[in-house]
């Protein structure tokens, strides 16, 4: 267990305030945030970290595009 | 992480140590009993080295000066030093066992530092199918047990105290507290995540604007600049607020010091007091001289002579009085005959003309009288002179003397008390460091000026922020309109939405952890600290009324009327330890951190019921809905005294460390090997064996364990 289990715990509550873009979207967001915070210990440069975020956003975004049917615009 | 087993080879005097730790949530405590110089500190450092390597010991000594191998190891012979830690990690996937091995070869030299090889570290996951070695062991360990928090997980009694109080600068200590809160609750990680997600979001925005081209690209770029300006203002505002806080803390510290010096008394007032006392003393000395002169006069006086000769003189006067009664004195006839001859008339009336027979007879009688009784003359003289003595009262001297002595005693008392007061006033004056008072006064004036400057800058920033925020809001609206008219690809728009959701989530979690969760730590800290020091929760009249963590993560101890106490000077040693332990326990519980809490000699300076309450509080098994934890206490026999009953109930594993060097002075049995080293045995605080038995153990009523092998 990471030394910061509360991030995930609080994220489960807070994510409910966000739109559900597809079934499982909230869990994917929580996983993404968890991954971002956990991988900080392995990634010292901001470029590495931002690349990880971009990849995660693309992954969840493509799921949203294929399952959710559009953006807020 | 919960450590199950620690094996140490050739680390200092720990030649071959194998210690099992309790990972039972119902019995979270492991007791390692060890007297001073038995290897507690070596074990402590061995674990830290095993987990983090030489880097984590840098703050103890320079790596060049550190020697792991025993001083008894001969020069030129290589020694393999090794630490093996078995531990459990529980996560959402379940519980898994791991083994961490770190070793290094050291060759002691005849002179100078040891020759040390390269450290080798290996981390394996232990599975039924076999051990699986993991890459990058350091980064895994840093995720499970961050090195930056080593002070929290592994500490000793003195450092426990220094974590919140002690010789370190207050700012550094608060930084340690901030780091612990931010790291364990995840606030630090979320702050970094928010900054990184914002950067990614800006990239997506720019990309979308580029795709749309024209107006949207321009508006996006302008908005970005405004948002950057807003962020710069906020950063500057935060920096200035921190600076203002530091200035205020500094002011408070210096004011406290100044008040403490002034509490001794104002210098002018003390000088006046000294002057007055010196005048009083001079005056009293004058009176004493007069008093001594009076006494000298009394000692020279006839009254004293009379007093001293009173007895014999009274007898003599009585005899003279008797002679008078017998008319033997005074010898009045001589005088009468002389008078008569001078008058020329005898007492019979006949004339005493010169040449007359009668006159010749009277003259003859006078001559006879004068020649016949010189003794009577002397007695008569004595009687007349004694008349003057009769008028001297014996009591005159006694009373005068008593009065003079009384005055002398009173004067001596007054002089003594004034001298004491003068001495005290001079001592108080000596305590006042005039130079420091002057320095502090000047520094406070300078701080006041700086505070004014910062407040002015904050005011200016406030005004600027309102303007930039307004421009930002306008530009956002403009951007929204431009986006509505632009043709952004659906994929990109969705990704931007997802990025925005992720950013909102990260911000919301950060806000929750910084607010309510820190408040939970604060509430728990207050409760646990009061439990340990025995303060009643409802009592507002005690020295310590509450402890709390502020919104800027500082720990504050409050007293009556909401006065803030300085933990360095106004909180006693036992309470300082209690405060740190309560903080670490509360934070790890609220943070849900499963990590060892390893404390070497935690109960020094703590005794009696406070010790009992402290052990009770830091070993209490977690409730089913609470985070399980592991606590390892390294205790001496004197620390164990009085808390054995709690350890009986709470400890799931016991070990004892002993040193061969304690034989024969303290250890009862000699070990087989001669070379100095430390050994462990499985004796609890109630037991002794042929390895650990000490001379006082029978007096302590410790049971003998035969199964231990020397």
Task: Give the N-terminus to C-terminus distance of chain A in angstroms.
Answer: 39 Å
Which consecutive residue ranges of chain A, at least 5 long each, have pLDDT under 50? none
Q: What gyration radius of chain A follows from the Cα positions, in whole Å? A: 13 Å
Shape of chain A: flat
Could you tell me how far the N terminus lies from the C terminus of chain B, measured between alpha carbons in angstroms?
Answer: 33 Å
Task: Report the portion of residues of chain B in β strands.
Answer: 5-15%
Protein chains sharing the most extensive interface: A-B, 45 and 56 residues
Query: Structural class of chain A, please?
Result: mainly alpha
- Percent range of helical residues of chain A: 55-70%
* Fraction of helical residues of chain B: 55-70%
Instruction: Write the H/E string of chain A, N to C.
Output: HHH
Low-confidence stretches of chain B: none
Largest sheet of chain A: none
Summarize the main sheet of chain B.
Answer: 7 strands, antiparallel
What is the count of DSSP helices of chain A, taking H or I runs of 4+ residues?
Answer: 3
Q: Please report the number of helical segments of chain B.
A: 20
Global mean pLDDT of chain B: 86
Note down, in words, how this protein is organized.
The complex is a heterodimer of chains A (73) and B (710). Chain A is mostly helical and 73 residues long. Helix content of chain A is 62%, strand content 0%. In chain A, helix 1 runs antiparallel to helix 2 and helix 2 packs antiparallel against helix 3. Chain B contains 20 helices and 18 strands. Among the domains of chain B are: 130 residues, no CATH class; 104 residues; 117 residues. Helix content of chain B is 57%, strand content 15%. The two termini of chain B are 33 Å apart. The radius of gyration of chain B is 49 Å and the shape is elongated. In chain B, the strands form four sheets. In chain B, strands 1, 2, 4, 5, 6, 7 and 8 form a seven-stranded antiparallel β-sheet that branches. At the A-B interface, helix 1, helix 2 and helix 3 of A face strand 4, helix 2, helix 5, helix 6 and helix 15 of B.
